[in-house]
Amino acid sequence: MRRIKLTVAYDGTDFCGFQVQPGLRTVEGVLYDALKTLTGEELDLIGASRTDSGVHSYGNTVVFDTESTIPPERFHKAVNTKLPDDVKAIASCEVAPDWHPRHTDCLKTYLYRADNAYVPDVINRRYAMHFPGRVDIGLMQEAAKYIEGEHDFTSFSNPQSQILKNGGSAVRTIDHINVAGESGGIITIEVCGNGFLYNMVRIIAGTLLDVGTGRFKPGDIVKMLEARDRTRAGFTAEAKGLFLKQIIYKN
User: Fold this and answer.
1) Marked catalytic residue, from 11, 33, 44, 52
2) Which residues make beta-bridge pairs with 176?
3) Are 173 and 194 in contact (CB under 8 A)?
4) SS3 216
5) Quick one: which of 67, 70, 79, 57 has its CA closest to 6?
């Protein structure tokens, strides 16, 4: 029995999120069916990030245990022959039998894309939220600096987060946030940190866009963090603009 680690990319548009849900098309469900067809085994899949419906990925991590004799470094090529066009494994390797993608120190990088054009870009309609109107990128960049570092991010999490409802900590560390683009074009917000709460990146993106429009001032971020109140931060940006860019494991 070996534990195989897959790096998986997918277009989340036509999936009801990552995690298996009865009767619904999910990334985990599609991966399970493909791996079962390939190996003939009933497998337990463990994903690093249970992305929401409509969220995309350039590199989520999935592990599973198998008795298959397929070489670990070729597993992604083999399973891709069984996968549809909107989800593919881009790399594979063997890891330790007790290695767990959610219990290992890592840095996750998310990318958010907003289309700031007056007329929405039809090519990007599935991969960017349409957000017309004048936006000041400089103000967004200034506000992003207040979010970096270790904070309690209760104000930037959906109150339905299981972690918060179970009394868990909302303290997270944001390594850096990069805001780029120009008013009238595609605006990108890259957020890198050691972990994220439910809807956290989408709320950060919505709040920074609100700063860009003048609804909030950059310094208001400090008050939002101190309040620990979801109603004090900005709106939750649409799922379709969010991408899990990469996960880097420290070990």
Assistant:
1) 52
2) 192
3) yes
4) coil
5) 79
Average pLDDT over every residue of 131-159: 97
In the three-class reduction of DSSP (H, G, I as helix; E, B as strand; rest coil), residue 32 is classed as helix
Q: Residue 197 in 3-state DSSP? A: coil
How far is the C-alpha of 21 from the C-alpha of 75, rounded, in Å?
25
Report the C-alpha gap between 52 and 147 in whole angstroms: 23
Burial of 28 (0-12, 13-18, 19+ CB in 10 A): buried
End-to-end CA distance of the chain: 22
Note if 52 is an active site residue: yes
161-170 pLDDT, tens digit each = 888 878 889 9
Neighbours of 51 (CB within 10 A): 24
What percent of the chain stands above pLDDT 90? Answer: 93
Strand partners, 166: none
pLDDT tens profile 53-69: 999 999 999 999 999 99
Report pTM.
0.94
For residue 218 the two structure tokens come to: 């950059």
